[in-house]
């Protein structure tokens, strides 16, 4: 089967990463199937020329095994965007992988997380490791894209009072943009020598690792909104997040994203973005400058 005959099934097609990838694949003339829960939010791809009309598959959720199997029918590769954080996240990821196997898919490219390990400080990174292990055991060809925190996520760390609070100490985070991850995914998915990516783990980071105090300085400089960082103790971090209507597992994930920074688990700066797409990764400052709509909430 040649590349022109292959179909890439893009999960999470209505999200920030999946939608960006869908547009890039369309621009390259790739055949794809967009998989998501809300047809109204599927990305609108350009028509005409060599840009094909994308097929769409609507599923109830990642727990919808039969719906996923139908969505993947005829696909060669599945791009698996990790699901929402929650107690059943790993089970849902496994359901996606199992559906891909049942549908006869050959390869999965999975968006994992930096430092994925069974004993990672960041509890959600443990979920990613468990998913990786299931993919390894599935018999599918695989590539893992271990993303650092997204630049956009750092803007959400800022409270209504302009303060970033968390137990991150003086640790550093090498955050990355959604665009860079989408560009890497496009390169990996459409590489004529795709098998050279089989069994590879890529660490996707920005070009620098910043402390949260330095993140606050960058946010202040670019947005004009005064932002500062105030370290919290673990007790303070859990107390300040206790009022949210989420389960304890999600709160633990929120808090340990900061303690993982403190432990140095997110400080590694990789050149995998530059190696795979031929240009340097975008810094937080450049991303903020390019996407003012993404931090508009800071001005409110």
Automatic annotation (TrEMBL):
Pfam families recorded: NmrA
Domain annotation NmrA-like: ranges: 6-233
InterPro entries: NAD(P)-bd_dom_sf, NmrA-like, NmrA-type_oxidoreductase
Entries under CDD domains matching the protein: TMR_SDR_a
Protein name as it appears in the record: SDR family NAD(P)-dependent oxidoreductase
Species of provenance: Xylanimonas oleitrophica
Source lineage: Bacteria, Bacillati, Actinomycetota, Actinomycetes, Micrococcales
């Amino acid at each position: 089967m040649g590349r022109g005959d292959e179909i890439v099934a893009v999960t999470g097609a209505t999200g920030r990463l999946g939608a960006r990838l869908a547009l890039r694949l369309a621009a390259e003339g790739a055949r794809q199937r967009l998989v998501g829960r809300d047809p109204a939010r599927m990305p609108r791809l350009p028509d005409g020329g060599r840009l094909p009309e994308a097929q769409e598959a609507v599923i109830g959720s990642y727990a919808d095994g039969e719906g996923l199997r139908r969505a993947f029918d005829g696909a060669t590769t599945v791009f698996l965007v990790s699901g929402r954080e929650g107690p059943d996240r790993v089970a849902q990821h496994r359901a996606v992988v199992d559906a891909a196997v049942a549908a006869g898919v050959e390869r999965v490219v999975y968006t994992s997380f930096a430092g994925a390990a069974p004993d990672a400080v960041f509890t959600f990174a443990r979920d990613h490791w468990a998913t990786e292990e299931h993919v390894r055991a599935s018999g599918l060809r695989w590539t893992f894209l271990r993303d650092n925190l997204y630049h956009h996520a750092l803007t959400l760390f800022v409270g209504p009072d302009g303060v970033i609070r968390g137990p991150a100490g003086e640790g550093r985070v090498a955050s990355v943009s959604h665009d860079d991850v989408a560009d890497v995914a496009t390169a990996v998915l459409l590489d004529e020598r795709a098998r050279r990516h089989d069994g590879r783990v890529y660490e996707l980071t920005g070009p620098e690792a910043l402390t949260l105090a330095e993140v606050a300085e960058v946010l202040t400089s670019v947005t004009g909104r005064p932002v500062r960082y105030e370290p919290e103790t673990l007790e303070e971090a859990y107390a300040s997040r206790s009022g949210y209507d989420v389960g304890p597992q999600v709160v633990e994930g929120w808090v340990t994203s900061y303690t993982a920074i403190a432990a140095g688990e997110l400080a590694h700066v990789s050149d995998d973005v530059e190696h795979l797409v031929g240009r340097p990764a975008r810094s937080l400052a450049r991303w903020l400058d390019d996407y003012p709509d993404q931090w508009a909430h800071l001005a409110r």
